[in-house]
Specification:
Layout: E1 9-18, E2 21-22, H1 24-33, E3 39-40, E4 53-54, H2 62-65, H3 68-71, H4 76-91, E5 106-112, H5 117-130, H6 139-142, H7 147-156, E6 162-166, H8 171-184, E7 189-196, H9 201-207, E8 238-246, H10 247-252, E9 259-268, H11 274-292, E10 301-303, H12 310-324, E11 332-334, H13 346-361, E12 363-364, E13 378-379, E14 385-386, E15 391-397, E16 402-410
Parallel strand pairs: 5-6, 5-7, 10-11, 10-15, 11-13
Antiparallel strand pairs: 1-2, 1-8, 1-9, 3-4, 7-8, 9-16, 12-14, 15-16
Helix pairs in contact: 4-7, 8-13, 11-12
Length: 415
């Protein structure tokens, strides 16, 4: 069944667990001011690895946010997702039991790139160190990509369409598009997002094969996209969950319309082929604008992918120019993730949350640690820039070759 054109997906709730803040207010305050929280990795068992800098979530107490019975059967990435989902539902003013009479009206969609590495590592150590009888029964589910979707739906009693986008970084935007289409087909609301926890020793070792990973020991210089000193990206944990609802349903219950999910498109150009990502990303941008019925000159801000290696940064700058024309050299561009690191599938959802908040507040957050931009882009640096924002473009590329673009409109926009 094709989505109905009269059913618009709107964002009504945001929940964030990020390196620069647990909770939407803390996250946005740090993001808006351009505060960088990149630092040396402190996780146990990681001190001998060549990756030195990351964006760690600190001040997160899962025991106070998630019930014990769920904690023991889930990994850290699912703890993040469940906590963020609770925050998003509270922000949307959806209380426990609001959908008890229509549980099939609410779905859950998450994206995941790595699954539960920390839980899996612990159980494998028990297997080889103590024997199979010491491996917990939840090993079979806690590492799984779909664990967050399953636990959020079980915990909330949501029985509508549920799914998981098992992908690289761009999957975070693809999950939003999936949720939007589910709403177009008749579902009232979807809890959607992504959270990752890739900083356990096993998970970090798995990432060492990425040539794009920064090995810098200096937190201030480890992740500097669009500059001559760009030398890779910094990994991060955390992510965000959103509540996306059908607009008429949201308005009937008096919810605040934070933003409209207006358009999306995705392409694939192959792992490590950053020169080809120019064409693929440009095509994704054109497709997302067409899906949104949006002209290039209507884009007021671009939240860039900002990978942090010269050939990828150049490809992105050229893709923006290709898709937006002369406007691409004038529109403000930002990459708040340079202050927090890239949380894989969680990264573009955090960018989406920041874009929604930027549209609401009329301000473009800066790009931390970036000053000497060497591409023809209007990268916002130093501090926040006030602006009248009606339309935001969020971009994402994955290390395995996915490209995605998402168009968001201001909540007051009438299409």
């Amino acid at each position: 069944m094709s989505p109905r054109q009269d059913r618009r997906a709107v964002v009504t709730g945001i929940g964030v667990v990020a390196p620069n803040g647990v909770g939407t207010d803390a996250f946005w305050k740090s993001t808006r001011e351009g505060i960088s929280v990149l630092d040396h990795i402190t996780r146990e068992g990681c001190d001998h690895l060549p990756v030195r800098v990351a964006g760690e979530v600190r001040g997160f107490d899962p025991q106070s946010l998630v019930e014990e019975r769920f904690l023991v059967q889930t990994d850290r990435f699912t703890h993040f997702a469940m906590a963020a989902a609770d925050m998003a539902l509270a922000d949307a003013r959806i209380a426990s039991g609001d959908y008890s009479e229509s549980p099939f009206a609410v779905g859950v969609v998450t994206a995941a790139g790595s699954g539960g590495g920390e839980f899996g590592q612990r159980e494998l150590q028990r297997l080889w160190g103590q024997g199979s009888r010491y491996v917990g029964p939840y090993q079979s589910i806690a590492w799984f990509y779909a664990a967050s979707t399953g636990q959020i739906s079980i915990r909330g009693g949501f029985k509508g369409p549920c799914g998981v986008v098992a992908s690289d970084e761009a999957g975070g935007l693809d999950a939003l598009a999936h949720a939007s289409r589910v709403i177009g087909r008749g579902t009232d609301a979807v809890v959607i997002g992504a959270a990752e926890a890739p900083l356990a020793p096993y998970s970090l070792v798995c990432q060492l094969g990425y040539r794009e990973l920064s090995m810098s020991d200096d937190p201030d210089r480890a992740y500097r996209p669009f500059t001559k000193s760009a030398n890779g990206f910094v990994p991060a944990e955390g992510g965000a969950m959103l509540v996306v609802e059908e607009e008429a349903v949201a308005r009937r219950r008096g919810a605040e319309i934070r933003a409209v999910v207006a358009g999306h498109a995705a392409t694939f150009t192959g792992a490590g082929r950053w020169d080809r990502s120019r064409e693929g990303l440009a095509q994704a941008i054109r497709g997302a604008l067409a899906d949104a019925g949006c002209a290039p000159e209507e884009v007021d801000v671009v939240f860039a992918d900002a990978l942090g290696i010269p050939e990828a940064d150049r490809a992105e700058a050229l893709a923006i120019a290709d898709a937006l024309g002369a406007h691409g050299g004038r529109v403000p561009v930002t990459a708040p993730k340079t202050g927090t690191g890239r949380a894989y599938c969680g990264a573009p959802v955090l960018d989406t949350a920041a874009a929604v908040l930027a549209l609401q507040d009329g301000v473009v957050p800066p790009t931390p640690n970036v000053f000497d931009v060497c591409h023809e882009l209007q990268v916002v640096t130093g501090g926040p820039r006030p602006a009248e924002l009606r339309t935001a473009l969020v971009l994402s590329r994955g290390l395995m070759g996915s490209n995605a673009a998402l168009v968001l409109r201001h909540g007051a926009t009438t299409l």
